[in-house]
Structure formats: structure tokens, C-alpha cells
Amino acid sequence: MTGAPGSNRLTRWIDRAIASNGAALTCAALLLTLPVLMLVYALPALVRWLPDQIPAQWEWPLGDYALRSHPLFAKASQLPLAQRQHLEQRVAALAQQAGLPSVQVVFRDAPAQAAALPGNLVVLTDGMVHQLARDELIDAVVAHELGHLHHRHHLRQMIGRELAVALALRLNGQEGAAVRTGTVIADLALLPHFSREAERQADAYAFALLRARGQSPLLLGQALQQLEAEGEARGAHAHARYTASHPPTAERFEQARRAAQE
Amino acid sequence: MRNPFDIPPIPAMPLPGQSHRGLDGDGTRAPPGFAFDAVSDQPPAGRILTLSFDADWHDYFRLWVVCQLLTLLTLGLYGPWARARRVAFLARHWRLDGHSFQVALEPRALLHGRLLLLVLLVSGLALSWVWPITVPLLVAFSFAALPWLMAHSFALRWRTLWYRGMHFGAATPSAPLRRPLWQLGASVALLALPLDTWLRGAGPMLGGVLWIAALGFLVWSWPNATAALTHYRFSQARWGATPFELATGPDQILEHMWSFWVDKGALLFLVLMYVGLLAVALGIQSRDWQALLHAVGYLALTVFTVTFARGRRLNFVLHRLKLGGLAFSSAMPPARAGWLTAGYAVLALCTLGLSIPWSTVHYARWRAARVKLHLQGDWSQFGPGPAPLRANGVMDELANSFDIEIGI
Fold first, then answer.
1. In 3D, which of B257, B374, B395 has the Cα closest to residue B325?
2. Taking CB atoms and an 8 Å limit, are B288 and A242 in contact across chains?
């Protein structure tokens, strides 16, 4: 550093800190604890605040692109037109009650799945409609997806991922192989955690919306159990705890049961 | 013992009055017959100079940890000053023939460059979110600018390095880098295209076939770019008024790379290892353990592979590099370098990065012990050159914070 006396004083202070074993140990301890605090408090606060500064319309092209490019959404729905129209009306009523009037529902021929995409898109698959069969169970799943739209989880998770990776990179000093270490940490541990939290938030939103309509939150728990059974029968993988993108179905069912008793 | 990671011997040079005929037998290259840590068939002449790295890891740890914390607390703003301190510390502990090196980075220019780069990256990211179809265009645009950025980045690295009171320097012609880097950019941009979506109506296989063709283009263009960058890094540089001379071209470097990865089946072995790892992971019921195994294996394999390839390439290049009366030889076992670096990466994972200062010092000492310099004549043959010129200020600042390593 050159020039100003302030900068020379700062440089001398840093030089003294570098020469001191005590200062180095203190810095090492802070380097271990500060990132944890950042992850627990600062990162979630940023993820909550930043997306609210971005207009919702800016996200819409993302949803449209995902719908056109994701292989899961490639095939057109085989459901009868009357059934699709019936479900569209139910979704519209739900969205109206949720204060999301411009929600568009899209049907695709795929295994049991439901998704919320930016641009107020809800995707329902033929597999899910066949598996759940009852309108009330489909309502519960749609309420959960409306929760994702309400909270803008897609954008929040994208921002959360970038911030988490940046923090992990910073921790490892951006030196060569350590860069890969940082991204491994972010992908393995942090991102599934954020995803599970988003799913819990969407569940809570669904419980509130179902209660407001005079329906039981337990419907969501039942729907999730049926979808899990269908997935296991299909051979979809289970047995993940730390890397799972969703909380365990048993935990979600228990939350639904408690919400129904409130 | 035959060296499995063979370095082709330096072609024999004729003595004065002797013709080239007969030196190389029937024209085929002589098989490598020297052990890895021995000198080549034509060992460099001259006095062997001692290269050493004498830093104490405790000293580096103190500097590193204070700089890391300050960088974290300032959300990266102190980063350029931290980098300047780290690089200066490491440089002055590299000693050659009793003299140390010096590095003079400009932190303010680094900071300006990083902020500029951050603005560009955030803008590109935002654009790719709003219009995902622009991703291939952004990739193509980034690679279009890459030759100039790489040329200036190399020149800046040399320009900020000093030894015995004389600075290094480098020319910055970007022409040798344009074709290989643009080809690499084209292959990456092709892979980023949503071919599957665009060509869905033309048939289920066409998109997949084109994607595989684009992947093949990447596999072909990546080593080309690596070889060109490796050659460029040394061929444009000088110390004082004396230019570096590299007795090999990008094509020879490329041939050296392919001879190992393809001819000896190393690439196939690597792919099989990774597929095997995946197969083991799939057999595990718990997805958590699957993910952990996949991640650690990927980390170890990629870190090992990149270090291995770089080590092997560096050995090849150093054996053919001269600086006036100064010649180089390198006996760094690439496999050991790969395992060391992979171990450092896993250790960094376990210690949340606190092991990095120790591993930096450890690796530098290990490398210093395996590189030799040979001086014919004395140091008076080297003289100062013209002061290095700064290029365009913005380009300097971008290049200052632009640090890409491309390699297999």
C-alpha cells in the first residue's frame, strides 16, 4: 500500500498481526466460526432479501425455458381434455384463494411428479393424476406447488447456490485444487439443506391454504405417502438424509398431522 | 528401468563439422532409456545451480490466516492486497544460487480488475437467467476475448517478477492463441446449445448424435488449447534482455500429450476407473454415501489427473527450455505430484482449508528439490532489457485478476 498515513498505519497493524502467534490463532478460530455464522444467519438473510429486489417478470423466461428444455416435460399429456379442463378450474380456484391469480397449469405425460416453475407455472404429470385419483389429494399437491411460487423458491435457490459456492471458495483461498474442494462442499452439504428448507416452507404454506379452504392439511401428508409408494414401486431411489432434496416423507406426514390437529 | 512416463529425449545436436545424418539412426526416435530422476541423453552442460524454497510453514500460516480473515471480513475487498502479500512472501523464499526472487503486484489495479470482472460475471449470469438461450452466445463471446486476456495475463505475471535486480517480461501477441482458444470456445458453445430441444421434431437420435459430436470436438480442441498455452507461456518471455528459447513447438507438446493419454491407454484407464467408481456408488443403498463417494472420488481423480498431466508437460517443456547460457532440467514424478495434490485437497476438505499453508510450503519444497538449472558461463552474460511497457489500463486490470489454467 502506498501514500496516506492511514494506510501505512493499517499496513503496520497487519504486519504486527502477521508476526504474532496469538493473532494468528485468533484468526484461525474466527476463520472456523465466522463462516458458520455467515451460513446460519447472513446467507439466509441475503437469500430472503435479494430476490425481493428482483421483479417477478424477470424470472418468467426461466420457467418457459425449463418447460421447453427439460426431458421430463418433453411429452404432451394423454389425459382427456375434459379431465384437464376440470383440473385447470380447480387450480385456478386455489390460486385465486392464494392471491396468485395468474397461475397457469401445464400437463405433461411423465411419471408421478409436480413442479412449480418461474412465471407462475404449475406442471402436473399424467402419472401424478392417475396415482392420486382424488381431487382433494391433487388440490393438496397443487397447494404445495403454489407455496413454491409464493416464496419464489426457484430464484432463492439459484441465488443461495451462487452465494454458498462463493463463500466456500473464499474459505479455501481460491488456490488451485482447493477451489474444487469448496464447490464439493457447497454441492454436497449446503444445497440439499436449502432445498429441504424450501420444501418445508412450501408444506407450511399448503397447510395454511388448505385450512383456509376448509380442507384438512392431512390431505397433503396422504398425497405424499401415495407418491412415495408409487416411486418405490417404480424403483426410484430412497435412503438419503443429508443429500436429499426433500425432507423424509414420514417427517412431512407428521407435520401434516400436527397441522390438522391445530 | 524403463520409464513408464517417458519423456522423449532431446534430439542429439551435431558437433561442428558433423552432419545430422546418422545421429538419429534410421530417423525414428530413440526409445527413452533413462530413469525418471536422471538427466536426459544430452544433459545440460554447465554449473548446477541450487534452487530451493526455504519458507517455514509457520510463518506462511500466520500470513495466510490473517489475510484470509481480512479478506472474509471485507467480503473480498482486501483480497488483492492479500494476494500481493502471499505472492511476495512465496517469491522471496524461492532462492536460486543464493539470490531470491521478488514479485511486485499492484493491489489497486488488481482490485479494479476484479470489480470489473465481477460486474461482467454478474451481468452475464443475470442475462443467462432472464434469457437462457443466450448462454451459448455468452460462452462464445467470453472465448472470443480469451486470447487477448490470456496474452496479457501471462505478460503481467512475467512483468511483475524480478531476479537479481532485473525484471522478467513478455511480448503480448495474441495471434498464436486465437485459433486454439476459439476452437475450444466453439466446442463449449456447441455443448451449451439446447440441441435436444431444437431437434426434437427431427428425430429422437439427432440431438444426441450432434451432442456427442460436439463432445468429440471438445476432446480434440482442449489438448490443442493446452499445448498452445503451454508453449506460449515460455516462448514469449525474457529475463532482462535475454529471451527464453523453447526448442519445441505446440505440435510437439500436443504429440507428447497424446502419446501418453491415447497411445498408452491412460485416458481409457481413467474413464474405466471413473465408471468403476460410479458402478460401486450405484450399488450402495444409501444415497448419502453414494454422493459422498462420488464427490470424493471425483475430487481425487480430477485433482490427480490435472496435476499429473501438468507435471508431465512441465517436465517435457523444461528439458527443452533455455535462457541464454542457462538450461533447465526437471525430474518431477507426475504420479507422485498427482497423489500429493489429491492428498492436499482431501486434507483441505477435512481441515476446512487450514492445511493449505502447510501443503503450499510442502509442495514448493518438493518441487524445488526436483528442478535443476545449469549455467554455462556466468551471470554477467545477462543484462537489463527495456522497461516493460504497460498495455491498455483496463486490459491490464482485467488480466491482473484473470487466472485460468487450462489442462488435461
1. B374
2. yes
Between CA B3 and CA B35 the distance in angstroms is 5
The interface predicted TM-score (ipTM) is 0.72
In whole angstroms, give the CA distance from residue B79 to residue A251: 44
The C-alpha atoms of residue A228 and residue A247 are separated, in whole angstroms, by 12
Q: In a 3-state reduction of DSSP, which class is residue B50?
A: coil
CA atoms within 13 A of residue B91's CA, in its CB half-sphere: 18
Least Cα distance to B167 among B399, B6, B374, B383 occurs for B383
User: Taking Cα atoms as reference points, which of B296, B407, B303 lies closest to residue B359?
Assistant: B303
Q: Which set of grid coordinates corresponds to residue B210?
A: 450432434
Give the list of residues 6+ apart from residue A161 with CB closer than 8 angstroms, or none: A186, A191, A194
What pTM value is reported for the model?
0.76
Per residue in B299-358, pLDDT tens? Answer: 777 778 888 888 888 889 998 999 999 999 888 898 899 889 888 887 887 787 888 899
Contact A191/B at CB under 8 A? no
Q: Alpha-carbon distance A98 to A208, whole Å?
A: 10
* pLDDT means over runs of 10, chain B (408 residues): 39 41 38 35 75 94 93 86 91 93 85 80 78 77 83 82 89 88 86 67 71 85 88 89 90 84 72 76 74 73 81 89 90 88 82 88 93 90 76 57 41
Say yes or no: A8 contacts chain B, CB-CB below 8 A: no
Q: Are B190 and B217 in contact (CB under 8 A)?
A: yes
Distance, CA of A127 to CA of A113 (rounded, Å): 7
Joined together, the cell numbers standing for residue A201 give 416452507
Any B CB within 8 A of A18 CB: yes
- Chain A interface, best mutation among B60, B65, B404, by max A CB count within 10 A: B65
- Rounded to the nearest angstrom, the gap between the alpha carbon of residue A14 and the centroid of all alpha carbons in its chain is 41
Question: Nearest 5 degrees, angle CA A220-CA A225-CA A227?
Answer: 95
pLDDT digits (tens, 9 = 90+) for B279-316: 777 777 777 777 777 777 777 777 788 888 888 888 89
